[in-house]
Amino acid sequence: MVLNETTEAGTSAARAAPAIEHPALPGHPVAHATGRPRDDGREQAILDAALELVAEVGYDCFSMDSLAARAHASKATIYRRWSGKAEVVVEAVRRRSCLDIPTAPDSGSFRDDLLALLMTMTALAEQEDVALLAGITRAMRLDPELADLMRVQVFERKHEELAKIVARAISRGQLPKSADADLLHEVVGALVLNRLLLTCDPIDVDFL
């Protein structure tokens, strides 16, 4: 009985005792339980490689194997961050687009604000690789997951700036309350893409 009580007391004390941290030996860093920290530079290299591949071979032929080879990364590294190629491509486009989203101007004129915003967005779109734009546009028609992710993470953020211009114009009485920002976004987007990908005609103030 005494032996059992002694053993139980020792066990309880061991459980209650705080863990002792031993200093790391020279040249041996202390291990952390939180896992390996994210390498932003490594991550961006993978995303850049993804866009390069979509532009070169198209979304259909783009694979996680080819991405790993191009980015000089293991597939395990890629899958720890993204579940599949749709997530990788959308994240790559979103990061690039977020850097370029212009702020809606507020000059007091609906026409001037709209033209200024569209000219800025068009100039940014013209800097993109046409093959990349065409590849993603085509892929969105065939891959519902990609299309949904692009709408939520990329297009809606750009639509917000156009909606601000419409809302201000309505508040100033320059547009009727029934003005539809969603419809305007669809029409303008279709016109710009048609010129960029099909006719290749210039997109200038006269056209807009």
**Percent strand:** under 5%
Low-confidence stretches at least 5 residues in length (pLDDT < 50)? 1-35
Oligomeric state of the chains present here: single chain
For the record, give the distance between the C-alpha atoms at the N and C termini, rounded to a whole number: 93 Å
CATH architecture of the domain at 94-199: Orthogonal Bundle
Number of helices: 9
Rg computed from alpha carbons, rounded to a whole number of angstroms? 27 Å
Q: Indicate the overall shape.
A: elongated
Q: Count the beta strands.
A: 0
Q: Please write the CATH class name of the domain at 94-199.
A: Mainly Alpha
The major pleated sheet works out as: none
Q: Any idea of the CATH topology of the domain at 94-199? A: Tetracycline Repressor, domain 2
